[in-house]
Design brief:
Elements (H helix, E strand, L loop, with lengths): L3 H10 L8 H12 L5 H11 L9 H22 L3 E2 L2 E2 L1 H4 L2 H19 L7 H25 L7 H26 L4 H28 L2 H4 L5 H4 L5 H9 L2 H12 L5 H15 L1 H21 L5 H15 L4
Helix pairs in contact: 1-4, 2-6, 3-4, 3-8, 3-16, 4-6, 7-8, 8-9, 9-15, 12-15, 15-16
Length: about 325
């Protein structure tokens, strides 16, 4: 399926966008030019390929989820006050927050333009499923924002948040591919579950990379979650499992408002190492991917397509970006 990555990239750059005013459309071109794994449109193609063998016929429809995803990134970066996206300044840093909000809104409309290329008989269902997914992504983002002011967040609450914020879009991407291929409702539902399970695993890997990744490869500020006291799986488990001294040190760092970023990151990483948080997170991540593999194995579809999707998920489990 890697042969379709250049096709997706080229089509993204060819999307019809306006010219005036430039500071509305240039940020859209900018964020789409930053690259990325194009994971979500690839999942649409892979979902489609579980039944049909001409995924090149649905490239535009597949880009619906990529444009929508980048819209959410543009707005999330404002809320997170993130300085970097894929190693480059975020849109609100390069322009300003007002520009990023308006350009993001325009991207959402462009996502619907692409969705409207769905076959007419399937379009009402596609819109309904897409809308449900989009609302859930917003629910997940709001929960993430709520967690910033909540003293205690449980593991279950965190998993539900990332299911909504990240995983449901991966689930919809696979489900949408199955819908376009003419799969029945049961198969589509199973694809959605497969994508959700893999999506939770994907986000847990992102949590790991934020702490342990190479910034040149990861493309975002490494240690940013620690600096901002973001309640990731790593921090939640550390607070749960820490001994008295470790918990005291963690809480001291979490309560500080004036600190050296590098010093804080190093101190909390040391506590993570003492508790073996890295391995605990990796085990949790693998458990969700295993659930996705089991669901996929039981899906009655083309074996070649199942192999492609399995290999794609395995590559995500080993990523360093």
């Amino acid at each position: 399926m890697t042969e379709f990555l250049p096709v997706l990239e080229n089509r993204l750059q060819e999307l019809p966008l306006g010219q005036q005013p430039p500071n509305l459309y240039d940020p859209i071109r900018y964020i789409l030019s930053l690259g990325g794994k194009r994971l979500r449109p690839m999942l649409v193609l892979l979902g489609y390929s579980l039944k049909e063998n001409d995924p090149e016929s649905i490239i535009d429809q597949a880009l619906t989820v990529e444009v929508f995803h980048n819209f959410t990134l543009m707005h999330d970066d404002i809320m997170d006050e993130a300085p970097l996206r894929r190693g480059k300044p975020t849109v609100h840093e390069k322009w300003n927050s007002t520009v990023a909000i308006l350009s993001g809104d325009t991207m959402m409309v462009k996502a619907y333009d692409l969705l409207l290329k769905t076959q007419p008989n399937l379009l009402p269902v596609a819109i309904q499923k897409f809308n449900k997914c989009a609302i859930e992504v917003c629910e997940g983002q709001q929960l993430d924002m709520n967690f910033e002011t909540e003293e205690i967040v449980s593991e279950g609450q965190y998993i539900e948040m990332i299911r909504l914020k990240t995983a449901v879009l991966l689930g919809f991407s696979l489900e949408y591919g199955g819908l376009l291929a003419g799969m029945d409702e049961g198969q589509q539902s199973q694809l959605q579950q497969i994508g959700e399970k893999a999506g939770i695993g994907f986000q847990l890997m992102d949590d790991l990379l934020d702490v342990y990744g190479d910034q040149k490869k990861f493309g975002k500020q490494v240690g940013g979650d620690i600096v901002s006291n973001k309640k990731t799986y790593l921090l939640i488990k550390a607070l749960e499992l820490a001994n008295t001294a470790q918990k005291s040190e963690l809480n001291t760092w979490l309560s500080k408002t004036d600190f050296d970023n590098a010093e804080k990151v190093e101190a909390i990483k040391n506590i993570y190492q003492e508790i073996d948080i890295h391995e605990l997170t990796r085990v949790k991540m693998n458990s969700y991917y295993d659930q996705a593999f089991t669901l996929l194995e039981n899906l009655q579809t083309r074996e070649a397509g199942k192999t492609q999707l399995t290999n794609f998920f395995k590559s995500l489990m080993k990523r360093d970006t």
